[in-house]
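quick one if you have a minute, typing this from the bus. below you get a single protein, a line of residues and a line of whole numbers that encode the local backbone shape. could you go over both lines and see whether the tokens make sense for that sequence. anything you notice is useful, everything is just below.
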Amino acid sequence: MGRRGGAARGATSAAWVRGAAPAACMSGVRVQCGTVHATARGNSVNAEEGAELAVLPENFALMAPTESIQALAQHEQQASQLRHFLADQAASLRLWLLGGTLPLPAGDGRSYAASLAYDSDGVCRAEYHKIHLFDADVGDAQQQYRESDSYAPGDQPCVFHSPFGRIGVAVCYDLRFPELFRQMMDPGMDVLLVLSLIHI
């Protein structure tokens, strides 16, 4: 969009905030730890360099056992700690921000892996709940993954309007299911953002 940094007209400067996989660094349900602070520093640097859109990874603030995920989801439902952080980041840095995923209560004792999009005024413009959960037997040291033990699946694709076009959102294992992206094309989609904790 060329709003900052002299970018060409019609171009968008986007930043993917990257780093090591977040560690479980909660004490109770506090998550204002190194990972979240690193996210804030990364967003600030990206904004100074002219970014207008920042995209955080899946589970940007927490990787933890099911009990901790549920505790954070309940705390977030009551206090909106991470959602306030994301909104403040977007507004203070004047950029659009797709906030990775964070747990929000699903109503069945599990959580949704929720990805929220904020505009440059800090207003939440979209919320997507990861649809396809990673339940698989694999050949690594852990041998099996059961994401559905902690998370409930969403049921609605997400496409939202932005200055950069109509943005579709997917998370990690969603990428394996092309029908989801065909559904996103129905309302029209110009940009697809896939958030992930691991290489897919």
Summary: The first strand starts at residue 14 and ends at 16. Helices lie at 34-48, 66-79, 81-93, 178-185. The first helix runs from residue 34 to 48.
